[in-house]
Structures are given as structure tokens and as C-alpha cells.
Amino acid sequence: MNHRVKTKQFNRDTNHRKSMLRNLVRSLIEIGSVTTTTTKAKELRRLSDKLIHKAQQNTLASRQSLHRFFGKRDVVNTLVETIAPAITDRVSGFTTLVRIGNRKGDNGKMSKVTLIKQPAHPGSLKAPKTEVVTAKPVATKAAPKKAAPAKAKTEVKKN
């Protein structure tokens, strides 16, 4: 019996399960959608909704706890600065789960988890950094100089 057991074990030990879910949430934040099995998607939805709700608070303590979970500052900044402000009107239900059918190899049930509202720049973590390069002025060719008149050679006669 599974009395008072909140999470699925996924036939993995604790560290592997935590890292798997952490990577799924990180991919959801970076890309905006994740395709995985239905049971993993349900756990991912449960965990990501809690983390997005914590990011909406935007306090130092919430940032620290998010950093403790992710371990990367850029993921936390993306979550707090781009995703959470895009979903300020909601209290919960930040993700949707769409069942997409069965996997071809082993007939596993697959689902796609997406964020309700995509930020202005989805995948902002993976976007290439653009640098503003100012063009150097190109030296234009001046009109060709007119040849100076040839100096008349004076012959010096030696006596």
C-alpha cells in the first residue's frame, strides 16, 4: 500500500529521481515545453507549479530556495524575471499537460507539458548573445592625382 506517499519512485533511487525531475523542470523553463512519459509529466507539472509560485514572490528567500533547488543562477533569473511576471494573474495551474499518444518503441504513454503563457523570448537561456558591432568607416578612394607635369630636363654641358 502507498499510504501517505506523495511522489512516484520511477524505479530509481532518491538522488537519480531528484536530478531527473530537476533536469525536466530546467528544460521546461529554458525551452517552454517538454515531451516525456505521462507519469513523469504529472510529477513535473506538480513540481514546476510549486517552483513558479515560489518565483512569483520574488523575495531574497524565494530566490535562495530556488537557487538551492537548481544550483544555477541563470535558470533562477530566467524563472523569476521572465516567466513569473508573464503569469502574474494566475495563482496556480501554470502548466498544461497534453497527452500525445503512445511511444513507438515500447508503447509508453507520452505527454507534453507546456507553460500556459510563454515569455516574450522563449528559450532565452539558450538564445545566442548578439553583440552590437559598429561598422568602421571605409576609406574611399580619392580621385587619382593628376600627374605633375614632367620637369624639363636641362642638359648641363661640361666644358
Mind sketching the topology for me?
Elements: H1 14-31, E1 33-37, H2 38-57, H3 60-70, H4 73-86, E2 95-102, E3 109-115
Antiparallel strand pairs: 1-3, 2-3
List keywords for this structure.
elongated; alpha+beta; three-stranded antiparallel sheet; 4 helices
Largest sheet: 3 strands, antiparallel
Q: Which range best describes the helical content: under 10%, 10-25%, 25-40%, 40-55%, 55-70% or over 70%?
A: 25-40%
Distance between the termini: 131 Å
Strand content: 5-15%
The strand order across the widest sheet is 1-3-2
Order of helices and strands: HEHHHEE
Radius of gyration: 32 Å
Query: Remind me, CATH topology of the domain at 14-115?
Result: 50s Ribosomal Protein L17, Chain: A
- State mean pLDDT (0 to 100 scale): 85
CATH class of the domain at 14-115: Alpha Beta
What is the fourth-level CATH superfamily of the domain at 14-115?
Answer: Ribosomal protein L17
Shape: elongated
Polypeptide structure, described:
The structure is a single chain. The chain is elongated, with a radius of gyration of 32 Å. It is built from four helices and three strands. Strand 2 and strand 3 form a beta hairpin. It is α+β, with helices and mostly antiparallel strands and 159 residues long. The model has no long low-confidence stretch (mean pLDDT 85). It has a domain at 14-115: Ribosomal protein L17 (50s Ribosomal Protein L17, Chain: A).
